[in-house]
Design goal:
Elements lengths: L8 E11 L5 E10 L8 E5 L2 H9 L6 E6 L2 H5 L7 H15 L1 E6 L8 H12 L4 H7 L10 H9 L4 E5 L3 H9 L3 E6 L10 H22 L9
Parallel strand pairs: 4-5, 4-6, 6-7
Antiparallel strand pairs: 1-2, 2-3, 3-5
Helix pairs in contact: 4-5
The structure holds guanosine-5'-triphosphate and zinc ion.
Cofactor: Zn(2+)
Function: Catalyzes the conversion of GTP to 2,5-diamino-6-ribosylamino-4(3H)-pyrimidinone 5'-phosphate (DARP), formate and pyrophosphate.
Organism: Micromonospora zamorensis
């Protein structure tokens, strides 16, 4: 039984028209909150017919498509090729607009270690460490992200059940533990470039490791055999 989440409330909601550098346009509803556990300025962004998606969910229909996207200043804003964050954000906005749902923009830069530390980690990666080893060499966790605020936003928006747009098993696992019903996991596309190949390979290996550990605990998969 998940522990009760601290209550958050909607602080403001405003409409914002968006146009991306490639010309794709959509108009979104941006929600801010009071009472999020870590006090950070996380956003929920309602995309497409998000209100209709809420109605469908309330009537017992298909849950809204939701992507918890962790902030990446270098990738999201400046088009960094070191990671896949920018194209993933762009893809998520369009897919959620088409389906109706929410993008949760989480202020957990650098998998939770912050922007400067992420840049320090890049320097260590240039010296040969992978993306996870570099965090550890800095005395930080491999991935320090916590999705409690994401779960709070979903509860506040009346979204207890979601289709999760992510290939990161930790997001599904944490959200489920926090009481969010993940009805389906919808994988993101792979955006490979010469500069992010090592990063994506390390991420895929980490995800496979997590899936295998999960299958071992739940005893539901043959993927958890000796490796
Ligand atoms: N510490 C660290 N963080 C990184 C590095 N590259 C990208 N990041 C951060 O990783 C996070 C990427 O998060 P998300 O876009 O939510 O995606 P994800 O966890 O990879 O999983 P998906 O939902 O499958 O996309 C962002 O916070 C980035 O700033 C890196 O090399 N080191
Ligand atoms: Zn990134």
């Amino acid at each position: 039984m998940p522990e009760a989440l601290p209550v958050a409330t909607i602080r403001t909601q405003v409409t914002v028209p968006l146009t991306f550098p490639d010309g794709y346009s959509t108009t979104v509803r941006v929600f801010s909150f009071k009472g999020l556990v870590d006090g950070r300025e996380h956003l929920a962004i309602g995309l497409g017919d998000w209100a209709g998606a809420l109605d469908r969910l309330a009537a017992g229909g298909e849950p809204p498509l939701v992507r918890p996207h962790s902030e990446c200043l270098t990738g999201d804003v400046f088009g960094s090729q070191r990671c896949d964050c920018g194209p993933q954000l762009r893809e998520a906005v369009q897919r959620i607009t088409e389906a109706g749902g929410f993008l949760l923009y989480l202020r957990q830069e650098g998998r939770g270690i912050g922007l400067y530390a992420k840049l320090d980690a890049y320097a260590l990666q240039d010296a040969g460490l992978d993306t996870y080893q570099a965090n550890v060499a800095l005395g930080r966790g491999e991935d320090e992200r916590d999705y409690t605020a994401a779960a709070q936003m979903l509860v506040t928006l009346d979204v207890p059940r979601i289709r999760l747009l992510s290939s990161n098993p930790d997001k599904a696992e944490q959200l489920t533990k926090l009481g969010v019903d993940v009805a389906e996991r919808v994988p993101t596309s792979v955006f490979l470039s010469p500069a992010n190949a090592d990063y994506l390979a390390a991420k895929a290996a980490k995800a496979a490791e997590a899936e295998a550990a999960e299958a071992l605990t739940s005893g539901t998969s043959d993927r958890a055999g000796p490796r």
